[in-house]
Design brief:
The protein is built from 13 helices and 19 strands. The chain is of the alpha/beta class and about 475 residues long. Strands 8, 9, 10, 11, 12, 13, 14, 15 and 16 form a nine-stranded parallel sheet that branches. It has a six-stranded mixed sheet with strand order 3-2-7-17-18-19. A four-stranded mixed sheet has the order 5-4-1-6, with no helix packed on it. β18 and β19 form a beta hairpin. α4 crosses α6 and α6 runs parallel beside α7. The longest helix has 18 residues. It starts with 5 loop residues before the first strand and ends in a 30-residue tail after the last strand. Bound molecules: zinc ion. Zinc ion binds next to β8.
Length: about 475
């Protein structure tokens, strides 16, 4: 070891990677990891962090959330996320009317760099307007390597895209080495069933999930996979919610196609029963699935077996006033405007996944490092800079205290939603400390040591295949 001193040593903890858990110290020089090994073999550090009894994980990433004017803003979302142990966010963003993609990248980068305490990148949502595709190549050169298309939401202007538009987008992305994310539900069928329900006066909150049968997700996934095969573009199915959809993805993976997927805590933990309890506040797309159905168990099994690569929040909080009219009609308000989809999830993502996955279901801590650090980093073109504890990587660490138990309360949340579906849930484990690029972000008192604006824009590159296979 040629380095005589390093800036920081994290000692005494159990290092958790996406494949292993082992006792080691981590040496940090500047903003990078300089060495990993027995403390006695590492150079002394100017600062020593004693992580005795803790898990030292790679900095955790939320790779699916929504940030912007209708949601939590670029200051609030990263601050809220930082308190929960996350170190990097990859939100979905949208371009303004009349703006090109490279213009939008530049504008949002400036805005987010001024406000975000966490490192961040952008996925862009593309509306059904062919001219926007001209901006994909320059946006890719600016570090945006993933773009999302909606196969549903027919009632939102230009939101639902045609199969031709999917093919044209994928063709471009394949040539550049990009990734296509898709919200897979059959929008025509959903719209037809919704209109039928409205005409029949079936408009209470519990009437919503039956208008989104599970096969409409499977059908759209099938189409996305086949267009992906046609164009040789890697396909990423966001927020997978059904067993049927998972079975189709498993088949594509077995055939060697680059098809990856994520699920979310809400699909692993909640069911359509929440519609009775929370009404429009549980209206999300895809919907929460039947309480007596096969989906939750299949999704847990799918992530355990490695077919589902990532877990993300799909945080889409709405101000309560936007949701309220949905109590009378879950589909549309009195002006015929859709009741918005979406629920808060960012501030409960990490504690729920540790507590429900690792503690209650006995998954190894490596599972969390896989689905919330290394795999998102690989798929979204950040690996090995992010998502891994290895020499030369950014010194991003989520140091986790597995012992403490606590109760989820919306009163502690910073976001605009005003509620959480998990109010009163008891969880085990909490973030004890996080480091972002070598600096303490969240300290052991639960206080953020960095200010809004500390976060850096992450220029991303092509995807690398995620780690698969059973986690145990
Ligand atoms: Zn989303």
């Amino acid at each position: 070891m040629s380095v005589r001193r390093v800036d920081t040593i994290v000692r005494g903890g159990r290092v958790v990677t996406a494949t292993d858990v082992f006792e080691a110290a981590v040496a940090i020089s500047g903003d990078k990891i300089a060495a990993i090994g027995p403390e006695s073999l590492l150079p002394p550090g100017d600062r020593v962090i004693d992580a005795e009894g803790k898990y030292v994980m790679p900095g955790l990433i939320d790779c699916h959330l929504h940030v912007g004017p209708e949601y939590d803003d670029w200051k609030t979302a990263p601050l809220a996320a930082a308190h929960t142990g996350l170190t990097t966010l990859l939100p979905f963003v949208i371009y303004d009317e009349g703006e090109s993609l490279p213009q939008a990248v530049a504008r949002l980068r400036e805005e987010a760099e001024a406000l975000s305490v966490l490192d961040f990148g952008f996925h862009f949502i593309l509306n059904h307007e062919p001219h926007i595709l001209d901006g994909i190549a320059p946006a890719f050169a600016m570090g945006v390597s993933s773009f999302k298309l909606f196969m549903t939401y027919k009632k939102r202007p230009k939101r639902m895209v045609s199969d031709e538009f999917i093919a044209r987008t994928m063709e471009q992305l394949a040539a550049l080495g990009g990734l296509c994310q898709l919200h897979c539900e059959n929008g025509d069928v959903l719209c037809y069933l919704e209109d039928k329900a409205i005409a029949a006066g079936r408009t209470t909150p519990t009437d919503f999930p039956p208008t989104c049968p599970d096969w409409t997700e499977e059908e759209a996934i099938n189409r996305a996979i086949l267009i992906g095969r046609l164009t040789d573009c890697p396909v990423y199915v966001v927020h997978l919610s059904t067993r049927l959809g998972l079975e189709r993805i498993k088949r594509a993976q077995a055939e060697g196609q680059r098809v990856w997927t994520e699920t979310c805590p809400q699909y692993l933990l909640l069911t359509d029963r929440e519609m009775e309890r929370l009404g429009p506040f549980a209206k999300i797309g895809p919907p929460l699935r039947p309480h007596d159905g096969p989906d939750r168990a299949a999704l847990w099994a799918g992530t355990e077996a490695g077919f589902i690569s990532t877990v993300a929040s799909d945080h889409s909080p709405r101000v309560p006033a936007a949701k309220e009219p949905g109590r009378r009609n879950i589909f549309v308000d009195s002006d015929g405007k859709p009741i918005p989809f979406g629920a808060p999830s960012l501030e409960t993502l990490v504690p729920l996944m540790y507590s429900e996955g690792v503690v209650n279901r006995g998954l190894p801590p490596s599972w969390l490092a896989r689905v919330m650090a290394e795999n998102p980093a690989r798929i979204f073109g950040l690996y090995p800079r992010k998502g891994a504890i290895r020499v030369g990587a950014d010194a991003d660490l989520t140091i986790w205290d597995p012992a403490s138990a606590w109760t989820i309360e919306r009163a502690r949340h910073l976001g605009i939603a005003g509620y959480t579906p998990y109010e009163g849930w008891t969880v085990k484990g909490r973030p004890w400390m996080t480091l972002l690029r070598g600096q303490v972000l969240l300290n052991s008192e639960g206080v953020l040591e960095q200010k809004p604006g500390y976060g850096r824009y992450l220029a991303r590159t092509s995807p690398v295949a995620p780690i698969g296979g059973a986690v145990r």
